[in-house]
Amino acid sequence: MTTETVRITVEGDAPYDVLIGRGLLGELRGLLGPKVAKVLVVHPRALRSTGEAVRDDLTAQGLEAILAEVPDGEEAKTAEVAAFCWTVLGQSDFTRSDAVVGVGGGAVTDLAGFVAATWLRGVRVVQVPTTLLAMVDAAVGGKTGINTAEGKNLVGSFHPPAGVLCDLDALDTLPPHDLRAGLAEVVKCGFIADERILELVEADVEAATDPHSPVLAELVERAVRVKARVVGEDLKESDLREILNYGHTFAHAVELVERYQWRHGAAVSVGLCYVAELARMAGRLSDADADRHRDVLQSLGLPTTYRGDRWPQLLDAMKRDKKSRGALLRFVVLDGIGRPSRLEGPDPAMLQAAYSEISSS
Ligand SMILES: NC(=O)c1ccc[n+]([C@@H]2O[C@H](COP(=O)([O-])OP(=O)(O)OC[C@H]3O[C@@H](n4cnc5c(N)ncnc54)[C@H](O)[C@@H]3O)[C@@H](O)[C@H]2O)c1
């Protein structure tokens, strides 16, 4: 199916373009810029043939392209894997005008971004996200990072890419669970800033979950526009960017309690339902808008409830979440669809009551 290529510019100190379409590999050279001579193509084991296709394309265009194959998923986001990439860069005499290309899910784009941010104090990186989550979230916005034994994303830096290539053809091989997990972030964008996203899912959930459908292409475009608008105004998470964390305080707590065995998008789905209940109880959100969270996410096959016997652990995890300010729990809540606001220091009884509302037992 042909889809017109969409170009979305992320503003800021160093503006860059996000391209969304199909068969976009030929656009990569342009995003890398004219000065680049060597490229490190970082890809996970599972996407070896995609990594090779990227390398061959760049080689055919006269660049020296070197592959760095890294482990799949979170195993790529370690200091050891970053050090492996630095070794390849060093042994290949990469200079400041050369570049890194990250081909993969959010784990690889986070790693590739971090390697680019740190090599010679920062070289260009172009991201080629291959999961829905990476297209609409991880690859756009300039946050890069790796994990340590003490926690996720504890080491990293802000290093905006020189460009992002969202080739929707990559989604053909993505397992349905991963596609749905990415849709949780898309739906989040719908609630905070673009109601049309919710309407598209409500109108045709089959199309919304079909990687070939123009509906999914439109959802990606709309979600990227929301993120681009927010990070273009506020790269470093001061105030506006915080709205992207809608649903994430509870989601991060679930991820921690589940020892990161849950997909991020699944945790975000439950987190959105939790914070909708909280806003409803605080008198901020109408019953209909709160119910809409559960209905939309449920229609996509995402979890909307969580086990009922984990409150002390969840509360403790939320208090330690890096997005909280001091001892005060702080949530992004909605005063209505597309109207994000803040709720600081809610009554502990209300926090627990909202949990009871989304408890499965
Ligand atoms: N930097 C940010 O702003 C930001 C935002 C959100 C999430 N993240 C990070 O993103 C990561 C999660 O990303 P994810 O959900 O994309 O998971 P992932 O990167 O772990 O990928 C999931 C799995 O899918 C495989 N895969 C990737 N693309 C595929 C494809 N097209 N077909 C088949 N298999 C494919 C991967 O090899 C991996 O095994 C986390 O590390 C999270 O911290 C970063």
Automatic annotation (TrEMBL):
Residue positions binding Zn(2+): E185, H248, H264
Pathway involvement of the protein, from the record:
Metabolic intermediate biosynthesis; chorismate biosynthesis; chorismate from D-erythrose 4-phosphate and phosphoenolpyruvate: step 2/7
**Top-level lineage group:** Bacteria
What are the protein's GO molecular function terms? Answer: 3-dehydroquinate synthase activity; metal ion binding; nucleotide binding
- Domain 3-dehydroquinate synthase C-terminal span(s) in chain numbering: 182-324
Q: Primary place of residence? A: cytoplasm
The free-text function statement in the UniProt record for this protein reads:
Catalyzes the conversion of 3-deoxy-D-arabino-heptulosonate 7-phosphate (DAHP) to dehydroquinate (DHQ).
Q: What is this protein called?
A: 3-dehydroquinate synthase
Gene symbol of the encoding locus: aroB
